[in-house]
Amino acid sequence: MERITIIGAGTMGKGIALVCAQAGFEVIVQDIQQESLDKCKSYIDRFLDAGNIRYMTSLEEAVASSDLVIEAVLEIMDLKKSIFKTMDQFSPRHAILATNTSTMSPTEIASHTSRPEKCIALHFFNPVHKMKLIEVVTGLETSKETVKAAFDFGSKIGKECVKINEFPGFATSRMNCLIGNEAMNMVMEGVGSIADIDQAMKLGLNHPMGPLELADLVGLDSRLRNMEYLHKTLGEKFRPCPILQKYVSAGWTGKKAGRGFYQYDERGNKI
């Protein structure tokens, strides 16, 4: 495995591209928006003086010679299916096709390709260059060879991999969404202030970051999409907290917007 293509130059895409480049892989980052590619390049240039990275707007060209393609776009199933269909059509037959989804079915995504045995979910965590875990989530037809290749890839980029059998929310997102949603309900109910609830989780349960601060980092719009999917697939206990829906409707989508549960300055520091 030498050439890796990342589809999507957002928060997760640029982080995955960075760690792949740091590990010595040839990397292509694809996004339909040149502005997103420019921001991705600026981010990666802060960490790397030089790296074998190219940036493209054409998905077909970006995947044409790749050994591994990692999709890192919004958590919208129809979008992922469409991208995987194109990835399958234009990438080499030996290439592994991976999704960075945090909740959605790799089996359903893979069903829109002609190579479901080579499809898998590789769930990275934000910020990618600091977080050590990759959840390797198998679909119904994912082969043992594909799983082994995924673990080998994870090792080469300095990550620990765990194998998770497909189920909505996998292991980490299922637990994390529940914790975050309950913290939001506690804010709504007046149990404590936003800062005190986060501090209680950090000091009392040894979490490195409070659940509300983490939700801001992930993006409240992304968290809401995840909760809606889990509510649909796993039932009532995953019903999104009304305050989450209200904040997203107001455009308070977290750190990237300058406001979520906390307010942030232009450098992303809490005010």
From TrEMBL:
InterPro entries recorded: 3-OHacyl-CoA_DH (IPR022694), 3-OHacyl-CoA_DH_NAD-bd (IPR006176), 3HC_DH_C (IPR006108), 6-PGluconate_DH-like_C_sf (IPR008927), 6PGD_dom2 (IPR013328), NAD(P)-bd_dom_sf (IPR036291)
Stretches that traverse the bilayer: none
Domain (3-hydroxyacyl-CoA dehydrogenase C-terminal) ranges: 169-264
Pathway where it operates: Lipid metabolism; butanoate metabolism
Pfam families linked to this entry: 3HCDH, 3HCDH_N
Xref: PANTHER family: 3-HYDROXYACYL-COA DEHYDROGENASE FAMILY PROTEIN, 3-HYDROXYBUTYRYL-COA DEHYDROGENASE
GO molecular function annotations of the record: 3-hydroxybutyryl-CoA dehydrogenase activity
Residue ranges occupied by any 3-hydroxyacyl-CoA dehydrogenase NAD binding domain in the UniProt entry: 4-166
Name this polypeptide is given: 3-hydroxybutyryl-CoA dehydrogenase
Keyword Oxidoreductase: yes
Stated family: Belongs to the 3-hydroxyacyl-CoA dehydrogenase family.
Keyword Transcription regulation listed: no
Class of this enzyme: oxidoreductase
EC number(s) per entry: 1.1.1.157
Keyword list, A-Z: Oxidoreductase
